[in-house]
Task: structure prediction
Amino acid sequence: MVDLNLPPFDYKTKQVEGKPYIFDLLRRKYVRLSPEEWVRQHIVNLLLTHYAYPKALIRSEGGLTLNQTQKRTDVVVFDRQGQPFLVVECKAPHITLTQTVFDQIARYNHVHRAPYVVISNGLTHYCCCINHDTAEVHFMDDFPAFV
Result:
């Protein structure tokens, strides 16, 4: 896997039938290691260790229904009242973060209505604050603090 623009961490990997797996701290099991999963695990580590987001309030690979179709959000962080706080869309490092990616997370967040969204390919990250009442979007310099 490529080096990312995210803090390194002690991860566990193993081979299963010749294929790489990485231990997912949230799901507490080994999952297939793809370039997107590599980014997701680094983002989860960042949220847990650098921003002190509570592990119990982070969900990885959660399902949602959008236009009668089942989709999966990469990471959703909930606030202490159980409402979505932050939605993260992870892409593989070779994927360029285009308007299409922003549109994807906007569709997902139309369901979640979280005040913050992040897209990352592990090399570039964008964090936005969203005012759902006015539809205003503001780019942030950093991830939001968890309160």
Q: What stands out?
A: The first helix runs from residue 35 to 50. The helical segments are 35-50, 99-112. The chain is about 20% helix and 40% strand.
